[in-house]
Amino acid sequence: MTAATLTSPGDALTRRRRVTTLLVLGLLAGLGPFTIDLYLPAFPEVKGEFATTDAAVQLTLSATTLGFAFGQLVVGPLSDRIGRRAPLLIATSVHVLASVGVALAPDIVSLSLLRIVQGFGAAAGTVVAMAMVRDLFSGKKLTTALSRLALVIGIAPIAAPVVGSWLLGILHWRGLFWVLAAYAVLVIVLQLLFLRETLPPHLRHVPGHSTLRQRYRSVLTDRVFVGVAIIGASIFGGMFAYLATSSLLLQEVYGFSPSGFGLIFALCSVAVLIGTQSAGRAANRWGAQWVLAVSTSLLIVGASLIVVLDLAGLGILGLVPPLALFAFAFGLSMPCVQTLALAGHRGEAGTAASLLGALNMSIAGLVSPIVGLFRIENAIPMGVIMLICGILATASLWLVVRPRQVPAIE
């Protein structure tokens, strides 16, 4: 490849280096979702050990997501100003210390507070990984690379509880947080060995984009970014309604064991996997905005079926297929949301990624206590919240993004 054919820095990487970089970035992006969701199967054990309520346990989940959201708002713009690697290493080190603290927490209040810090430390992985991909790639290569990254970002929230349920077979629930600490240490080592700085100094002080205010203005005045950010937050909120409810719903209402619970999550993980890997090719062929037109419609169909089939009394047989459909639509949506959000913001990729992720996590964090207001006796409250989120995503696509007005990504 000659210099004349290079269109982005990632083109200069060898195939082996490109694959290695994307794998490490994938592990980085997975740290946040695993931090949030690995202990979902342990909710009944946490509730029993601390003699607390369902709502109090679910609030520990909200604490993590809110810490994660705030961390992204700090780390993303900072990485635009001083580079990607330093904020990444510092935040991940904070995660290690917080994970050890959570593993030793003496009560539910301490656990919740430490989960905020843990979420803050985990935030760097996702936001900086997305920014690094934007630093390296553009055009259709950006869509393809983000679909690989979205494979992890999308599947990790579903796969983490599966792994957690397996680990609970050999570990106490506190052991899950020692595992998270080890994961973060591994990520730090991989960063030091394989990741190079992707944001050159001359791009950190671009006229009109150098201050925090200018970066936020550039992003927040972009109609397409605002629209897809609402879509991303909506679909994350819908998925989080499922994540916050499913442990208690499947184990306490339907009587599944932790391994049976993990099997249902595994099925949904496969659906997300298929969705994310279909998104890249479909978006490159028809446009990310038109893939979103399909995926947001499928969100509404899946959520509606959850409610209707539960009212029909079909139980678990009526729950799993529409859950899998919703998970597929979630996976199909995420790479398209990220592509449209980042494509026009190379100069403030960290800021754009942080706003996107922070909004996702803030909405997700608000969903958990809303779900906690309802007694978990059936799937209807979860399905209704998922349906509302699907409707919001669809409305944002057609009223704010306006697919016909989105420029093609070459």
Q: Could you name the key traits of this structure?
A:
mainly alpha; 14 helices; 410 residues
Task: Give an account of the 3D structure.
There is one protein chain. With 410 residues, the chain is mostly helical. It has a single domain (19-201, 210-401), classed as Up-down Bundle (Growth Hormone, Chain: A), CATH 1.20.1250. Helix content is 79%, strand content 0%. It has helices spanning 15-37, 43-50, 54-82, 85-103, 108-136, 139-167, 175-194, 212-220, 223-253, 258-286, 288-311, 316-342, 349-372, 380-401. The protein is globular. Residues 1-6 have low confidence and may be disordered.
Bin the helical content.
over 70%
Unreliable residue stretches: 1-6
N- and C-termini, Cα separation: 19 Å
User: Class in CATH?
Assistant: Mainly Alpha
Fraction of residues in β-strands? under 5%
Rg, alpha carbons: 20 Å
Number of helices: 14
Mean pLDDT: 84
Instruction: Summarize the helix and strand pattern as letters.
Output: HHHHHHHHHHHHHH
The geometry reads as globular
Query: How many strands?
Result: 0
CATH architecture designation = Up-down Bundle
What name is given to the CATH topology?
Answer: Growth Hormone, Chain: A
